[in-house]
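During the second year of the project, the team shifted from modelling isolated chains to modelling whole assemblies. The rationale, set out in the original proposal, was that interfaces cannot be judged from single-chain predictions alone. As a representative example for this report, we include one of the complexes processed in the last quarter. Its constituent sequences, exactly as entered into the pipeline, are reproduced here:
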Amino acid sequence: MMSDLLQATFVVGVLAGMFRVATPVLFAALGELITERSGVLNLGVEGCMLVGGFVGFLVAILSGSLWAGVAASMAGGAVMGILVAFMSTTLKVEQIVTGLSLNLFASGITFYWYRVVFRSDEITNIPTITPFRPIEIPFLSEIPYLGELLFSQYALTYLALLLVPVIWFLLYRTKQGLHLRCLGENPRALDMRGVNVTRLQYLAVVFGCMMAGLGGGFLTTVSVGLFIPGITAGRGWLAIVIVIAGNWKPQQILAAALIFGFLESLQLNLRGLGQELPYQIFLALPYIVAIAILIRGRMRSEAPLSLGVPYLRE
Amino acid sequence: MIGVDEKVTKLTFKFQRRTEPSRLGQALAVPVALVAALAVSSILIRAAGANVAEALEAMYLGAFGSQNALLETLVQATPLIFTGLAVTVAFRARIWNIGAEGQLVAGAITAYWASVTFSGLPSIALIPTVLFFATVGGALWGIIPGYLKVRFEADEIIVTVLLNYVIQYLLSYLLSGPWRDPNAFFIQTRLLPEAATLPILFSKSRLHLGFVIALTVAFVAYVLLWKTSLGYEIRALGYRPNVARHKGINVAKTIVLVMAISGAIAGLAGGTELFGIHPRLRLDAMHGFGFTGILVALLGRLHPGGVVLAAILFGALVNGSSRMQIVTGVPVALVYAIQSIVILFLMAADGLSRFQLRKR
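Output from the structure prediction step:
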């Protein structure tokens, strides 16, 4: 068993899987970062992912185009985002309750829609699509080990990794990013400078949910090629934990997402080896680690000050 | 109000935020939300290609059409009364316990353990023992996030959500390993001990003792929240946490206590449902009661009486939907969408009742 673990192919398999498995939570976490930087605490990430995953799958299967499915998953997330923004920014309803209700709404509506479209209760006849294949970058993917690890990933995985520096640049090197960070700290100051606070918050929330939707779309169009009600299995919540663990900074969020990706990838690869420990321990591990992170995460130095507090203009 | 404000200023009216929500608006919020949700449901039923009136009639008859239908509605409502109350006690203190789902499973696990361990006892002693252990299991699973919140400031929303997954995997382990019925194909336990099953209230129905216990707990929760000093502390904590601290309330102790009570009630949902309805403990048997309990608590306006009514309404939806699916082919899953849509409209109506239309 130990010798199996140390084999290079096993290690490379786990690490290559880490990037793939981390992709959906990375999308969702980067989106949630933008949302929370605008001062809105969106607890509906799980719901946005679920809607994105379902709509993406549905459009992919109906149109026959995986990329149409990916676009649709973003659109599905965006629609959820408009709901989140309308409830929290316009109506100023309790954001915690909004997020929770939207999660339940997402799970109910996707379950119903799935049943209406596919109609079959039988387990034998689950509709599937042929998921994306990894992109093997010419020459580079042929490098031993490193090729499999870094240069034969999925297009969307490359996109998620690319998004990390892009969002960093947006947040810290552009005027809009400065406004966004200010919005989560002190919306009044921004309002007084004549910036349209509502518009900026709407944009941030819709973008955030769009990314969560894309994360959900990755699950159905890349990871598995099918939709099961509740397929997100808590990944939206892990994304929220990842934002906290990453201290609201893009590069640290990437690191946290990769840690969760590693844990899940390890579990997937260990299953093939037939180890003696009950496999449920490995399945539960990401959630237990997430709780441990929350215990240690008391120093939330970068948490936006006005997070979750609706802005009221006097 | 900005977004709305700017659009409406061109007219002669404008939206203004009230200092206090309008009483009329608050009173109307529930009926308005129910009507709006009914309208959306009609659209969803149409989308499934069915006749709306036919589907709604089938649903009504399925839920209330006969004495048996009515009793079955109460069967469906029973676990929701418990989980709704569990959420109510916590939310009243603004402690966001999203973990009723997991605490229910914890209660079912400890209750099952007790039923096997004390299986020699006669029914009259075994049932109280089993239910006692159901509350203990739920309470323990609730105390964990409460303690982590008090001691480490770990956010209870996320911790309770994560613990829901952890307990699910623990149950999965128990069912596939130590507790597995070796003669069964599915992962499930052996048949539950006969002596531990709850008595049925009306012959030829499934309505069990759990319903009476649920109503009792609702009454106790009302007394607890409004007639005891702990209840005062709970509501003070929810209303003005800082003031509560200054009034000499031991906030840390109250938080852990609230999570224990909330978890205990959710655990009781697991215990009564398992020994009232199910022949064995299985993985998927009690899915969703905890989450629906959040919606029940919100629709019931965080009041035990309201929770009972909301639970019966949601129980009726679940029960009626089976007949709807048979008659019209509209999937049962519709009710899960409807339940959350009711709450979204309710919150929107609450939000709107904080605004008023003024002449400029």
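Chain B touches chain A through 54 residues (CB under 8 Å). Chain B has 14 helices and two strands.
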